[in-house]
Write a structure and sequence with these properties.
Blueprint lengths: L2 E2 L21 E3 L2 E6 L14 H18 L4 E10 L9 E10 L3 E9 L5 E11 L2 E2 L1
Parallel strand pairs: 1-8
Antiparallel strand pairs: 2-3, 3-5, 4-7, 5-6, 6-7
Length: about 130
Amino acid sequence: MIDMTDDGYCFVCGPNNPIGLKLDFSLDGEIMTTEFVPRKEHQGYTDIVHGGIISTLLDEIMVKLAIELGMPAITAQMDIRLKKSVKVGSRLTFSAEILEATSKLLITQAKAVTDDNEIVAEAKGKLVRINTFR
């Protein structure tokens, strides 16, 4: 059994993390969303958002969705497709949904889209359900 304690320091959503992104998430039915406007400190190459930041948000939104739906889980596998580079300052909307749920696994998918509804990144995740979450 894994004890997953939340002390508010999650890099993506933790309100106590002084260098965190502090993103807010919303749940509409079984779809979770969040918005993110990357800043200069999130770049890889000049004015291009680092793919690792985008990947982190795709991972976070899939796990956050599972938790909100009462199925706490951790990522076991994630396949990411970065389809297009993103400029610093561009607003991205991330969304996630659960495709399949068993007693042990969740299959999830997430995407990041621009204001023009262009998909810039996609992910598919395999999450292992856990028993204890505080």
